[in-house]
Amino acid sequence: MLLTAVGAPPAGAEAPAENPAQVVREVRIDDRTRDVAVRSPEIDGPARTKWVRLLLPRGWSPDTTRTWPTLWLLHGGGGDHRDWTANTHIEELVAGRDAIVVMPETSGCSAYSDWWNHGRGGAPKWETYLLDELRPLLARKYRADARRAAVAGLSMGGLGALKFAADRPGEFRAAASYSGAVNLLYKSRDGGFDGPDAVKAGGLVCLTDWKRVWGEPGYPFDTQDPGDVRQRAIWQRNSPLYQAARLAGTPLYLSYGDGTRTGPGWKWGDPPPPASRCTDPAAHGTDDGVERAIHGMNQELRGRLAELRIPATVCASTGTHTWPYWERELVASFPMLMGALGV
């Protein structure tokens, strides 16, 4: 079923002429769920269109003058706007909460960044699209309050959540990362995956040259010359580890596993995840090479935040790079996220 959102812009919303992003289609999934197709020149591809899934609260209407706080949930590499509703009970979790959940689609290798494109810039500009175009568009069409927003994401989306909070201090009232790729300049100390390996794999997923994203990281990855830094500065600019100081003042939640396949010890319907799950493994396991690298990245970020005396809620546990752990941590972090929104 196709619908058209209507209503006058709330006070302070960006005027339509100033925003090139446009809603070109809306599909009603159920009473609370809408899939919205948005076209923007900042999106690459012939259609320049991506979907956004919205969970709307009871009593929502596009015709009112009020607005609703927003929780942004970002997908991981290879994912899309349907991932959170397909793999978690987010609908039940947010039921009764007076907030809009925004689940945007980017690409499987977006890195939630404006791409370097070999120095040429231009599309895709994922951060510009999401934060400078989609946010005011949702404010205008769907009464989403951009000033009362929190952001969370998994894997690549965890990178995006902390990157957005660091890039735009104060614009998100809380940020949560579940198994986030929080430093893609991570260098494994024992022959495991390095951070740039994830960007290279993303290029394969997207059938594109991985160097388009941020260029090349330079030493110590694809060169043995310490003076050969190539585009390392771009990688650092997009790394929550290197931008950690800019996270000061934002409530933070970090969860990650060690790569050991033990099972989450929790399922939907159980009481809230117990604090005892956060066993804080000092070293990584060997069952899951991806989460093994994630463990190293997050250990570095955790240490950096401590150096800067920036508080963060941290849950390091046994576990792998899979949805049962991410849903557990979404539930565990949900009170913090909702509390930051005043919901």
UniProtKB/TrEMBL annotation:
InterPro entries in the record: AB_hydrolase_fold, Esterase-like, Mycobacterial_A85_antigen
Recorded GO MF terms: acyltransferase activity, transferring groups other than amino-acyl groups
Endpoints of the signal sequence: none
Gene3D superfamilies xref list: alpha/beta hydrolase
SUPFAM superfamilies: alpha/beta-Hydrolases (SSF53474)
Domain of life: Bacteria
PANTHER family found in the cross-reference section: DIACYLGLYCEROL ACYLTRANSFERASE_MYCOLYLTRANSFERASE AG85A, ENTEROCHELIN ESTERASE-RELATED
Protein name as catalogued: Esterase
Organism: Streptomyces eurocidicus (Streptoverticillium eurocidicus)
